[in-house]
Specification:
With 120 residues, the protein is mainly α. Helix 1 packs across helix 2, helix 1 packs across helix 3 and helix 3 packs across helix 4. A hairpin with a 5-residue loop joins strand 2 and strand 3. The termini are far apart. Helices cover 67% and strands 6% of the residues. Strands 1-3-2 form a three-stranded antiparallel beta sheet.
Amino acid sequence: MGVERLDDHDYPALTIGQAADLIGVAPAFLRSLDAADLLHPHRSDGGQRRYSRRQVDFAARVRELADDGHTIAGAASILTLQGDLADARRDLQDARAERDEARAERDEARADLDRLRDRA
């Protein structure tokens, strides 16, 4: 494994035991997320689950919500909605930036037109 892969949040570098230790759960918790179709770890050639940092972060957030009294399914719904909201906010920010750029281009075109009219 190249060292650069360790910087890849999606590279499945962690065993189930390592992932469980990182977030303070039993491996059974991670298996339950897999069984509930909420987390899909990579499988090694030997069939062992391998987790990426992004997957471990997701599992940790599910655990936090479960610790707050939410069901695992409820926690997954909350995280999905939070992700959707973050995506919508990014889309809105992008749309506003495009709008502002279009307004600046429009204003520049109007100024050019006014200069041409003044010359005539």
